[in-house]
Amino acid sequence: MTTNENTTATAPESFAAEHAPRLDWAKHAPEVWKAMLRLDKAATQGLDPKLGELVKIRASQLNHCAFCLDMHTKDALAAGESVERIVQLAAWEESRHFYTEKELAAIELTEAVTVLTEGFVPDAVYEKAAAHFDEPELAQLIAAITVINAWNRFGVTCRRTPGHYTPGQYA
């Protein structure tokens, strides 16, 4: 660098302040917290762990639950999921080639159950999932989607703070 060049260093931008949670609902409703943990464990029994995390991430993206995104992204990585597939999940329709047909059916069902834009889960979406999952596995998948949506509502409403979760912390 020559002396004529601009050598003024700029201070790095500081990050925005971390918001405080609105309510530690688990502390004030411990029996609900424990019941949700048991329900979550029961809902994911028999599901492939990576698939379960993809479903949880996609629902959390749709519900804007930063805490759950932080948690399930870290859990997915710990389960061996690739960064690339996690990143592409937000644009899965344009990135279909990253996922199996079974995973795509689960992701599409997750969106239909989470958003309910038509007021119900369309028959075509349900039938596609039913073609890739046997009935017990499909029941577990629907339960897992329903449970993550409940978790997302607690997280968003109480404004749980992302960034502090370690994989397996609530296992």
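[next item in queue]
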Amino acid sequence: MALYIDPASPNAQYIFDVNKSPLFQKDNENYINIVGTNQLNTLKSSLLDIFLSANNVIEPHYHPNAAELVYCISGSVTVSMMNPSTKQFLTYTITPGQVANIPQGWWHYDLANVDNTHFLAIFDAPNPEVILGSDILKFTPANIMAETYCLDENQWEQTIAPVKPSTYIGPYTNCNRKSMSSHYVNHHYQHYPAYQQIPYGPQYQRY
């Protein structure tokens, strides 16, 4: 893992092309680029440059070591996060120039409402850690899930069999289910047109 370096150091880096730093690519319209200390050693923050087409979702996940500011550049993105104190989901739809703040450790996901949606996820950590929902589902032992939640172990294994670890952007290209429609989103969640400030209340995967 790269560490922050003093900007006065002869080895300091001051410029980087995020377009040449892919984190994940589903297809030509749905992909994520990244810059953090691993890419630019004078950074004390980091960001993901995210491009999505309509009804594609950045999968549910959380960041143990970083808060996240989502800034919409083009299109429209719905940001949903679970308040761990109230156990309620807060959902905000933002458009160009608007931001949504996700406190550190909050479970959340992002849905593109239209094609050519482009937004930044900006972190207050140089290399944010991430726990992905797909990894939790895939790697938690089936017998533990069955015992804990009174499930049939075989049915649980069949249910999660299609889940791919580190999905990042869903649904899968070969998914036969209908995409999540804007009708579903608009009628099942409360939307807010602008940013709302929310106070900050094993080894993890790093970007």
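[queue empty]
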